[in-house]
Amino acid sequence: MNWISNYVRPKINSLFSRREVPENLWTKCPECGTMLFHRELKDNLNVCSSCDHHMAITPRERFDDLFDGGIFTEVEVPEPVADPLHFRDQKKYPDRMKAAQKKTGETEAMLVAEGDMGRTPIVAACQDFTFMGGSMGMYVGNAIIAAAQRAVELKRPLILFSAAGGARMQEGILSLMQMPRTTVAVEMLREAGLPYIVVLTHPTTGGVTASYAMLGDIHVAEPNALICFAGPRVIEQTIREKLPEGFQRAEYLLDHGMLDRVTHRKALREELITITRLMLGLPPAVKGDLPAPSDISEEVTPETPVEANPEAETPVDAAAASEPETDKPA
Q: What's the CA angle centered on 35, arms 29 and 39, to 5 degrees?
């Protein structure tokens, strides 16, 4: 046994070897380049504490903040036909789906749930941009229809969070057919007299913008979100002109009447509670976790102790003092 090779060298290597740091402990802000600790970033709802840039957030993280106590129930969505066109580019479509499912831990690009938001029952649907760019395929169309049907069944408003790069090219014309399908789903809500609120997040583009994302009764957007059909780079190359500063961003669209509100992610929940209850004709939500106080005064029961009258010597004297004087018989 060579003690130098088997003992001394490994000991020296362990002392001078570089410790491996998990890659998910720090996140670099794509806007300002600040390194953000993962716990602080999560507590801040994936908003940069340095430049206030709104990063992508998963549907489950968003629902944890949206619903009361983070409690919600998923709505079942019908599964579409897998790989109907047998599409293949650099990878087969099923392989891309498996990679996206492994990366995100989700089945598809949209999650539908029901629960209470500020003690107001709602149905919510949220797209996941990390799942193949949140692309709109047959599953997303089925999810929106399932959300609308559930909202009509329960007579609840529907709140949809959009985040997509457009239609899913691997499904071809079948993905484009989701535009009229989702339009019919929105019409179901209107016929039922139920509010349909859309929250546009970064980015919302392509066929999603041309269909259900811009058909809401109220349109709210997160700050600096890109909202468009064709991107600014494509438009500049087509018209060969320089576009205005902030073109197709949320603030620009708000100034030009395309949006109703631009709200910070931290204030978004309270904003949606206010809008939803206003559209439903309900009173403002009660702040805090306790139920609303009752206006009915508490009645005194026989078990309730009666405070002693310090001026009365005995309870009998106190009762006799309270009785009206009457003529005694002779």
A: 95
Residue type, 72: F
CA distance 239 to 261: 30
Given its phi and psi angles, is residue 10 left (phi above 0), alpha (psi -120 to 50 degrees) or beta?
Answer: alpha
Total count of residues recorded for the chain: 330
The DSSP-derived string for 67-86 is SGGG--EEPP-----SSTT-
Two tokens, residue 19: 């410790």
Q: Which residues sit opposite 197 in a β-bridge? A: 159, 218
* Res 320 pLDDT > 50: no
How much helix, strand and coil, in percent to the nearest 5, is found in the chain? 40, 15, 45
Q: What is the DSSP letter of 322?
A: H
The continuous run of DSSP H or E covering 113 comes out as strand 110-117
- 128 Cβ contact list (under 8 Å, min separation 6): 58, 59, 104, 106, 109, 110, 111, 134, 163
- Give the pLDDT score at 25: 84
Which residue ranges form the domains of the chain, and what is each CATH number? 23-55 (no CATH), 56-279 (3.90.226.10)
How wide is the angle at C-alpha 79 spanned by C-alphas 76 and 82, nearest 5°?
A: 160
Question: pLDDT tens digit string along 45-95?
Answer: 999 999 999 999 999 999 999 999 999 999 999 999 999 999 998 899 999
Q: How far apart are CA 121 and CA 33, in angstroms?
A: 40
> Is 196:212 a contact under the CB 8 Å cutoff?
no
CB 104: neighbour CB atoms within 10 A?
18
The pLDDT tens digits for 137-146 are: 999 999 999 9
Extended beta strands in 145-278, E state: 158-164, 196-204, 218-221, 261-262
Dihedral angle sign, alpha carbons of residues 171, 63, 130, 271: positive
Label each residue of 209-225 as H, E or C: HCCHHHCCCEEEECCCC
